[in-house]
Amino acid sequence: MTFLASDEMKQWATPVFTGLRGSHAHGTFIPPDDPNGTDDIDLCGVYFADARHYIGLTKRPETYEYALGHVDLVYYEFRHFVHLLLKNNPNVISWLWLSPSAIHDQSPQWQALVSIRDLFLSKLCYNTFTGYSYSQLQKMERMTPEVAEEYQWLRENIEAAGFSPDKTAPSSYVTVIGWQERWQRIHSKYMSGFMGDKRRQKVLTYGYDVKAAAHLIRLLRMQVEILQAGLVMVDRTGLDADELIAIKTGKWSLERVKAVADELFVQGKAAAKNSPLPDKPQIEQIEEFVTPLLYRHIRREYEH
Fold first, then answer.
1. In 3-state terms, what secondary structure has residue 72?
2. Domain 7-120+281-303 listed as CATH 2.115.10
3. Tens of pLDDT, residues 277-291
């Protein structure tokens, strides 16, 4: 099974599943060589830790993340992953509904988990998807064109003076130090952790963060689908993938995005009120099914 992890981690972790998440899974990928392309290759995975993690004194990481070029990967330890599923976490619940083309490797344990995936769905997804949607709404507008333009101007002038924005210049370069301090404040508040140069340029071009806007609309639509019909439609091909790509390429105005989002927030609230889903996941049935999977892994590890 493909297991893109550190050599040290490979010594104690057993892969359960590896697949694609993000734009590849949603059918909305825009290649990096496209003028509008800001998508990376996002991989996801689940692993069992060794027996000592579960019954000994040694604790292994429950989350493992790293980036390698255009590849971003996140792995979750099996039990931790199940807890996230029980919360109807939007970042992971969709993994159980990936299309076959998005799955790289899967174990019998993963197939068993997929077989009970409907037991995890509940009205909790209203709160979790709404929360994630609001975060994308805030992210969509928090980087204004004015801020992006100032950020870019500062960087260009700092580099033209022969310095790096993130390494303080000698004390004699007072003006450059002032530029660096302003650049670092903007970077800390608006940029750190999610926005690269190309994505910032798109904010300048379109006036808002179009990638966050596409996430916003997709999350809200998926929320309504789950609440109304218990369907987790991850691959948006043939549904609204073309619209989501249109948003990502700046073909929707900010006003249109906000208007559609407002309607979807209302639909989501109504769908939650009338949803046939249970209030919470069916925890007892899930535990009866999942516990033997973990037990058998621990027993094999311990005996080995």
1. strand
2. no
3. 999 999 999 999 999
